[in-house]
Amino acid sequence: MSSTRRAFLGRAVGLAALGMGTAAGTTATAHAATAQGAGAAGRCRRRRIPPSGIGMHLYTMRTPLATDFKGTLERLAEIGYATVGVSGRHGHSAADIRRMLDETRLKAVLEHVAYTTVTGSGLPQAIEDVHTLGGKWVVVPSLPDGMHSPAGYREAARQFNAAGRVARESGLKVLFHNHDGDHSVVDGESLYGILLKETDPELVGFELDLYWAAKGGDDPGRLFTEHRNRFPALHVKDMAPNGGFEDVGSGVLDFPAMFDTARSGGVRQWLVEHDAPADPFASALTSYRYLSRLRY
Predict the structure, then answer these.
(1) 105 vs 35: which has the higher pLDDT
(2) Higher model confidence: residue 190 or residue 34?
(3) 214 part of a folded domain
(4) What whole-number distance in Å separates Cα of residue 271 and Cα of residue 224?
(5) Which DSSP letter does residue 39 get?
(6) Is residue 202 assigned to a domain?
(7) pLDDT (0 to 100) of residue 45
(8) What range defines the domain where residue 284 resides?
(9) Which helix (H) or strand (E) holds 111?
(10) 226 by DSSP, 3-state: which?
(11) Which of the four pLDDT bands, split at 50, 70 and 90, describes residue 20?
(12) Into how many domains does the chain fold?
């Protein structure tokens, strides 16, 4: 087990033992101190996330988007978000969404597209749609059932390379988004490691979901340093003490430690995500404030 993973789990267990109320207060205080630079004597560089790199993955906002797509984008722009990752169009065409993005001065950087589309006859249309949206990356959000084996991941790597060649001709790149199961070791082989080793870095990259990587026992900091420039986009998602989802900066994940090596990983987009927010706009505001104030 990595040292970073042990730190995640040790911190989570300690917070849970104090009780949810105390844990929330302790965690919030700790994150606030980090954001202000207190206790960060060892981090002399004090980097910050560029404002143009703070985005929202729109899966977080799916409930309000379903009834008021443009109004939701307007509120995200008012909070300060610069970019979005598209995940579900809610009946709108790519051109419709691009128009609403332009009107709200937001920019789409990617769209999630099903594995069967990216590896099948739908790839040309997916590429055209991402171009229409103004994005850079076609992202496969998950692998189909039945591929959870070394052989399945090798086939996925082969398919990603093939799709990546087609996407490169149009100036785009194929990325893969992880879940916890992707970090499993099956028959002595790391499934995620297979994708990293057997995909061409020129053709295929990764949108690393920090929550799911940690949940699966992996170490984002290690991934950034050992696989340089493979991770142009992140899903910044926090973990509650009980292992559930939390607003960014309100949970137990050590984002400053992760981001310290993000430059090595080639990170250009920090996309906020919460899979089940009680109030999507409140979650969006809390998460943006944390990332915009964070120094590491």
Answers:
(1) 105
(2) 190
(3) yes
(4) 17
(5) T
(6) yes
(7) 60
(8) 3-35+50-293
(9) strand 107-112
(10) helix
(11) very low
(12) 1
Residue 40 forms part of a structural domain: no
Taking a C-beta distance cutoff of 8 angstroms, is the pair 218, 2 a contact?
yes
- Cα 83–chain centre separation: 13
Scanning the structure block, which residue is given the tokens 């990983």? 265
Cβ proximity of 172 and 130 under 8 Å:
yes
Length of the chain: 296
φ and ψ at 266, to 5 degrees?
80, 20
CA angle 269-272-274, nearest 5°?
A: 150
265-292 pLDDT, tens digit per residue, is 999 999 999 999 999 999 999 999 999 9
Phi, psi of 120 (to 5 degrees): -125, -155
Question: Based on the number of CB atoms within 10 Å of its own CB, is 22 exposed (0-12), middle (13-18) or buried (19 or more)?
Answer: exposed
Q: Quote the CA–CA distance of 236 and 210 in Å, as a whole number.
A: 6
pLDDT in tens, 128-179: 999 999 999 999 999 999 999 999 999 999 999 999 999 999 999 999 999 9
The conformational region for residue 171 under phi > 0 = left, psi -120 to 50 = alpha, else beta, is: left
Kind of pairing between the strands at 185-186 and 189-190: antiparallel
Residues 34-61: what's their mean pLDDT? 75
CATH number, domain with residue 71: 3.20.20.150
pTM: 0.85
What is the model's pLDDT at position 46? 85
Q: How far, rounded to the nearest angstrom, does the alpha carbon of residue 207 sit from its chain's CA centroid? A: 6
Buried b (16+ CB within 10 A) or exposed e, 155-178: ebbebbbbbbebbeeeebbbbbbb
Residue 45 lies in a domain: no
Is 235 in contact with 193 (CB distance < 8 Å)?
Answer: no
Q: Which of 259, 243, 245 is nearest to 291 (CA)?
A: 259
